[in-house]
Amino acid sequence: MNDPPDGGWSRGETFLQFLRRRGVSRREFLTFCGKMAACFGAAAALPPGSRALAQEMARKLSAAKRPSVIYLQLQECTGCLESLLRSGSSPIDRILLEQISLDYNELLMAPSGGAAEEVLRQAADRPHLLLVNGSVPLGQDGAFCTIGGDSAENLLRRAARKADAIMAVGACAEYGCVQAASPNLTGAVGVADVITDRPVVNISGCPPIAETITATLTYYLAYGHTPPLDGIGRPVFAYGQRIHDKCPRRASFDAGQFAERFDDENARRGYCLYRLGCKGPATFAPCATIEWNLGQSFPIKAGHPCLGCTERDFYDRMTPFYRRLPGFVVPGLGVEATANTIGVAAVAASVGGVLVHSAATVIAKKRAKKAQPETLPLAVLGDTDKATQEEDQKT
Amino acid sequence: MAKERIVIDPITRIEGHLRIELETDGGRIGNAWACATQFRGIERVLQGRDPRDAWAFAQRICGVCTGVHAIASVRAVEDAIKCKIPPCAELIRSLVSGMATLQDHVMHFYHLHALDWVDVMSALKADPAATSRLAASLSPWPNNSATWYREVQKRVTDSAAGGLGIFAGGYWGHPAYRLPPEANLMALAHYLEALSWQREIIRLHTIFAGKNPHPNYLVGGMACAINLDNQMAINQVRLDEIAGMIDQARRFVLEVYYPDVLAIASFYPDYAAIGVSSPTLIATGESAYSCSGAPAGGVIPAGVLLDGNYGTAHPFEHKRIAEFVSSAWYSQPEGDRQGLHPWQGRTEPHYTGPKPPFKELAGQPKYTWCKAPRYDGRAVQVGPNARILLALAQGHAETAQLAGEGLGKLKAGVEALNSTLGRTYCRALESVLLARRMDQWFTQLNERIRSGDVATFNPELWEPESWPNQAQGMGFMEAARGTLSHWVEIDNRRISRYQAVVPSTWNSSGRDPGGQMGPFEQALAGDGKHPLADPKRPIEVLRTIHSFDPCESCAVHLLVPGGGGVEVKVQ
Amino acid sequence: MSLYQIPASEIRVELGVPVPFAGRKRRDLLIAAALGAPLGTKDPVDLALLSAAAKKEDLRHYQQTGFTPLEPRLARSVARVRRLDSGEEALFARGEVDTILYLCHPDEATRYRAELQAEMQMTHGFRALGVGKGSIAPDGGERWEFLGYIPVRATRQKSRRSEEPGDFYYVPVWDWQLRALHWLAVLLIVVLSVTGLLMGSSRFIYGITDGYSNYLSWLRLVHFVAGWLLLCAAILRIAGLFLASNRFQRWYALFPVRVRDLKNLIQVAQNYLFCRFDRPPHYIGHNPLQQVAYTAIFAVGLLALVTGFTLYALYDPQNWFFHYLVRFDELVGVQYLRLAHQLIMWIFLAFIPIHVYLSVRADTVEREGALSSIVSGGRWCRRGTRFEDGEAVDN
């Protein structure tokens, strides 16, 4: 592969080589190791004495071939991280032990409180990769989500400052997901709305498939740059095509074979779920190709229509989930009308209008016929028009 | 030693964001405040939506207890529209939620809780051969060779050379770690094995419900069609896979998880008296695996244990629930001292805390986003220990037999189940019972299919036109973390009010107007005896908090006013 | 000096059945009335009498030798006429019945009957033109005889214009290219609507084929091909807006450009809504209301194309062109685009009845030839009509 661009830590490069390339001197590095040694405290595996510990750390870290990763969890449900744990292509244990050094992640890390914050501070100060779960609530100065006493926004900004690449994992980090759905009480926004000066990779989904997260990560590790992205920052390798275009039920769609309701004969024959509200035709996601949970299956295959969770604002735009198209609430009646009922009503109104108008035309014509025509003066009977008469009278 | 204020924020290895503030006095905790520091307002988002969509919103309350909110939501809607689901769908739901709970319990123990008991760095010094002998003495689990443990040890050692990653900054070497290196290595190996195990067994969700996390549910049944003669439906291939997963799940629970918990617990017997929390406990029992509406009947009926009297189960009456906001950042027209039943909640978020970044929350009357629900004025514990204690009180033989054996090994009485160790043990104990139930459910499902009853969906009340104009319903569910209920009001086929009463709300609640602490706080500071040796390395506190398996995204929710929308003021 | 301030073509003169007296024949009465007209008259009543009389007798046998025009005081005119073959001369007086009666002094009974009848019969604006004949005695004395009267009415002719082919001239308006595009668009829109509806509600054909066909893919294929053709048609039409030599087809014919046209727009609308009944202003091309309506439906068609192709683009979002279209999907969400696309179809379907009705109406009721013009390309213009959008060439 090509040389990585400036920021990345390429495969095969040691941590020390990488730091040198990034302009970090050995002296700075040793100071850092001293601080880290304090963090590890009385780690039993290491010889006692902070100086010796620092040297040991320095020895180990300079040879380290795993890039540092900060994985923040902001305003979210942890589903995305749970999804990551299910990864099959690059299992989580391999990622954790062999591919990256996951320095900060609230769900998995050993320390809590001050020790955790210290780890974060250290990690944020050196080159790292930033992965983010969860949205950033901007309301109430960020009081809707605080970690270590500080707002999610500040935390994100600090962690992003020296990040080589930023990956927003999941719909919350992309745009706010469910908490950003109308009426968005907390003012939740995505990472790219806060970090505006750098590209953010959006790994869409609620949650994303584990393998798309790990593959985006390993792609970066392998080639030193983020994968090519589509218009809204999603990696093309995963979000370049619709579920619909790769769906195992697609043949049924083309044949016009549809399940008309859940568990009917057609559903049991494995026919297309489009009529049950499947959003696969509107959803860019690799569900049908990568599939979920070690490639076992995915919602459409398992009989449930796609909810469209990789698309922006899907809680507002893809709902109602069980209808092909959004409906309209007729004010006052509380009845939902579809586009077709409205359309049929419009056509009926138009035809009715035509009928009424033509009737009115006929009536108007008859009336016009009946009406006294304007009688004109007759010269042969000595009529003069008024003007002339007046002139006559004057003279 | 003078009193000292300690803040632990973030509490890691939990779901969501929790902050614990403590006052210590000479190595003992004198006072504690549990602060939930995240608010999302999902119930408000649900207003005005199609009730059939509600599960997909409610499910996103939590991605760790994924599915439980969806199932409670679906049940609440089914209760409201009076929809009965086919038996096969009920069994599939039971299998799905049972597997979720098993996976949740195991992952909680190994990945969220174990590092409180297990010193990873010490494991690197262990003798693999001795570890193999230790493991073989505990269980017939085949993955116990010295070669295997050597490989694990080498893998983690090599990894540590390239950066400690998630283990960096841990409290390694803390005197509170008491396991011998061999036990540590065994637990570490199982930590890694559990990672592989969980992604295998959870495929049951993928087959029945499309994916995990956040599997798909359906009002009126389940979306997966059963057809033994079709490639795309639940056929024999899928059933075989599921049988394999249930088997795999049961084996791991019986041969790894349960023995590990017992083994590790035997090194920490004092924790059977540490972390004693609220003596009032609620569980809706096994009936909550198959009901809609108020929990009723079942092998283990719903009930309440009051004030430490673990022998008598009182009937559970939801009318006695009241939620207080005296310590939470909400306002309600009735004032802070008034507790409201969930049906009457008229609450608005109203942040009065300091502007972030802040140093302390404890000095203030309001310090959390979590409300304080009380049952008859009592703080209540929910969760596996509540379920086990209730089953024992109701004389459930299978539970009694297993718990008797386990408690005998730990040389502890029934009251020890309300403790840090008790809660952790109950989780394992329950997993064993549940793994057995999974087999029974699956057998029942197979019998149904054999008898030709393969319906998984009841279409009668699918179209909103078939619903009454006004309806209200409730759906109960025993989630991994305790009793969960969703409450829905439907007006003109749209949701007009939605509420969730969530396990972690009970457990992580703050103080009520009477000053009574919530269960987390009681566990830490209830008796003034909870140890905390080194405030910089608060491992004892983590043990107790983690024993509850906190789920803070679940805990914090917003009750919305009924009758169509009072504006929530958020500046 | 003309008594009438209106074009002669709008004056309609009607002659009632002549009412002869004193045993005369109607024919004689009519001829007498005609002979009473002054030589070279332009008065429409006179012309009508002359034309009617000319059918009865060859008036060239008479020669007018004198004429006393009508004076206000006497209220009668008298013509002196000589019969060429016999040389016999006679006087013919015309005027109000009572004037002529006064002149003629018939017997009391005749007089009474004449006055009463004239009064009774003269309804609907008809008036009686009394006619008297005076024979000239050799002594020069005049002997007058009351011949009778003729009901006469002159009205302004508004509703019933002449429909003679000779009254029209043919103007070519629409090029064949435009007509071809119009009918192509009609065909395509019908095809697109039908296939679109069938795709949306598969039930229809599903019931027939039981799903064992590829009918949905065929529907989609036809829909897409029709969509591409409609796009081509739209591009040609847009090019035509700027390239066509026909000024009725260029871009400035899309909307009213002059203030007067805006006023006319309101007037046309009022005419259609029966708020006024006069004749709306005439246009050779489209009137302002048509311009606005057709431009709006043109815009709706473009919107249908944009939404349609934006949805179509989803199958290949990386395409160099579709890449831009997909931005719309991201902006509003695919579901709402689908909804818009479907609603637009219904706008078309509701437009069609109104459009067809008004065109037929223009052809039959208003004789403007709008319907036939989109077939033949030209329209018939009535001679003498002043057109707002062109020189009223009456060639």
Automatic annotation (TrEMBL), chain A:
InterPro entries, alphabetized: Cytochrome-c3_hydrogenase_C, NADH_UbQ_OxRdtase-like_20kDa, NiFe-Hase_small_C_sf, NiFe_Hase_small_N_sf, NiFe_hydrogenase_ssu, TAT_signal, TAT_signal_bac_arc
Species per Swiss-Prot/TrEMBL record: Geomonas propionica
Family: Belongs to the [NiFe]/[NiFeSe] hydrogenase small subunit family.
Transmembrane in keyword set: no
Gene3D superfamilies: Cytochrome-c3 hydrogenase, C-terminal domain, NADH:ubiquinone oxidoreductase-like, 20kDa subunit
Family annotation (SUPFAM superfamilies): HydA/Nqo6-like (SSF56770)
Protein name per its UniProtKB record: Hydrogenase small subunit
Matching NCBIfam families: hydA, TAT_signal_seq
Domain Cytochrome-c3 hydrogenase C-terminal: 239-322
UniProtKB/TrEMBL annotation, chain B:
Oxidoreductase keyword on record: yes
PANTHER family, sorted: HYDROGENASE-2 LARGE CHAIN, UPTAKE HYDROGENASE LARGE SUBUNIT
Subcellular location: Cell envelope
InterPro entries attached to this UniProt entry: Ni-dep_hyd_lsu (IPR001501), Ni-dep_hyd_lsu_Ni_BS (IPR018194), NiFe-Hase_large (IPR029014), NiFe/NiFeSe_hydrgnase_LSU (IPR050867)
Protein name: Nickel-dependent hydrogenase large subunit
Keyword Oxidoreductase attached: yes
Similarity comment text for this entry: Belongs to the [NiFe]/[NiFeSe] hydrogenase large subunit family.
Cofactor: Ni(2+)
Region entry Disordered, spans: 506-532
Keywords: Metal-binding, Nickel, Oxidoreductase
Quaternary structure, from the entry: Heterodimer of a large and a small subunit.
From TrEMBL, chain C:
UniProt keyword terms in alphabetical order: Cell membrane, Electron transport, Heme, Iron, Membrane, Metal-binding, Transmembrane, Transmembrane helix, Transport
Family: Belongs to the HupC/HyaC/HydC family.
Domain of life per record: Bacteria
Domain Cytochrome b561 bacterial/Ni-hydrogenase: 173-377
Topological type in the membrane: Multi-pass membrane protein
Record flagged with keyword Cell membrane: yes
Major localization listed first in the record, in broad terms: membrane
Name of the protein in its database record: Cytochrome b/b6 domain-containing protein
Transmembrane segments: 180-201, 221-244, 292-315, 335-358
InterPro entries attached to this UniProt entry: ATPase_P-typ_cyto_dom_N, Cyt_b561_bac/Ni-Hgenase, Di-haem_cyt_TM, Hydrogenase_cytochrome, Ni-dep_Hydgase_cyt-B
Keyword Transport tagged: yes
Compartments (UniProt record): Cell membrane
